[in-house]
Amino acid sequence: MSIKTFALAAAAVAITASAASANTFGFQESVEDRNSIELNLVNTQSAGVVEIYNLKGGERGALLGATSVAAGANDDVRINIGNGYKTDVLAVLSINGQEVAAEAFDVERD
Questions:
Q1: Mean per-residue pLDDT for 11-21?
Q2: Are 22 and 68 in contact (CB under 8 A)?
Q3: Which of 56, 70, 64, 71 shows the shortest CA–CA distance to 91?
Q4: Please, what sign has the CA dihedral across residues 53, 106, 101, 12?
Q5: In the chain, what is the straight-line distance between the N-terminal and C-terminal CA atoms, in Å?
Q6: Which pairing describes strands 98-108 and 30-32: parallel, antiparallel, or unpaired?
Q7: DSSP string spanning 43-106?
Q8: Quick check: helix, strand or coil at residue 36?
Q9: For 76-87, how does the pLDDT look when each residue is reduced to its tens digit (9 = 90+)?
Q10: Residue 3 in contact with residue 27, Cβ under 8 Å?
Q11: CA distance 72 to 81
């Protein structure tokens, strides 16, 4: 392996590790209109909680559901919310009771 190839590989590993440790939601713009919300990816530095809220007119509404997530990358995070929403939703990631990330999602309706 050449020095240039090694340097590129090391940089890629560093970027990947940095991205995985951030408190973020994955690349997803919408969720399906169902009794549960599925988030493709939630990255978190520490164990935390994902809460789903109604989002209407840009305002956070009622809490619809929540679930715990482990530190690191969490794939296919499912939050049961019942059928109490017909608006878009806001996902909020909290660690130790402090909100560290939030993301609005469009709800895909049939």
A1: 44
A2: no
A3: 64
A4: positive
A5: 52
A6: parallel
A7: EESS-EEEEEEEEETTEEEEEEEEEEE-SEEEEEEEEE-TT---SEEEEEEEETTEEEEEEEEE
A8: strand
A9: 999 988 875 667
A10: no
A11: 24
Which of 22, 11, 4, 30 is closest to 72 using CA atoms? 22
CB 103 within 8 A of CB 90: yes
**Contact residues for 105 (Cβ-Cβ < 8 A; gap 6+):** 28, 29, 30, 31, 37, 88, 89, 90, 91
Indicate the pLDDT class of residue 3, thresholds 50, 70 and 90: very low
Q: What is the pLDDT of residues 30-54, one digit of tens each?
A: 677 678 888 989 999 999 999 999 8
72 has a pLDDT exceeding 70: yes
- Structure tokens of 74? 């969490």
